[in-house]
Amino acid sequence: MALYRDEAVVLRTYKLAEADRIVVLLTAGRGKVRAVAKGVRRTGSRLGGRLEPSTHVQLMLHEGRELDVVTQVEAVHQFRTIREDLVRLRDALAILEAVDQVARERSPDPPLFAMLVGALRTLDRRPAALLVAGFYWKLLGLEGTAPMLDACVRCGTPAAGGDVELVALDLAEGGAVCRVCLPTGGGRRAVRPEALALVARILGGDLAGALATPAGPLAAEVTNLATQALEAHLERRLRVPRLLDRSIADVPTW
Ligand SMILES: [Zn+2]
Fold first, then answer.
1. pLDDT higher than threshold 90 for residue 42
2. pLDDT tens digit string along 50-64?
3. How far apart are the CA of 189 and the centre of ligand 1, in A?
4. In terms of residue numbers, what domain contains 173?
5. Which SS3 state, helix, strand or coil, does residue 243 take?
6. What is the CATH number of the domain that holds 8?
7. pLDDT mean across residues, the chain
8. How far, in Å, is the centroid of ligand 1 from the Cα of 7?
9. Which of 1, 28, 33, 187 gets the highest tally of CB atoms within 10 A of its CB?
10. Which of 91, 109, 127 is the last residue of a domain?
């Protein structure tokens, strides 16, 4: 079996047999990798504490046919602040779940890896109401399915210059809809222009500015839209609240 070294973020872990754990990793060099960490559920295991979800690690792995085997782990960043604060933990798990859904097995995706590490670093430093939404929209951008927000997706009239007012989002058609076109077609969600403007800022490269948005109805609306857009893209529902409960039960390492 070939031995290799890679850098990774732990997306999630689950139990295997008596004392082992499967870790799902987003690696820098190989995309999503599933690996066995042997003996980590025994007390005193040195590997175990370094393989918690959201941890950024350097690993040595043996390549396996289906599952690789973790032989060494060094923490690059433990992100302790994230795991010690429930709000940050919930946000981290929401991000990790989305990456787990989007990442392809053994298919390198350096921009996705860089974005994940960047988001976790930001979250570790300072929580932000729009962090998860910002990540989801950028993720949709990486996937090439960000919505069209500068013109009506149905009639093509540009929003700039105030020609039309965009008042809804049609996720099936992939963009904003103007007031004139609103009565035609289904699948639309009414949105406030400020919410669309904020999404456009995130997608347009001003994520840092958008992250300054305080918690409140606007941030909640943008987060809701982001979740719906990502779920539409994934064609499945995200399980963040359930994950949060599970991770609380999983966290004890003391
Ligand atoms: Zn229109």
1. no
2. 899 999 999 999 999
3. 14
4. 131-254
5. helix
6. 2.40.50.140
7. 87
8. 46
9. 33
10. 127
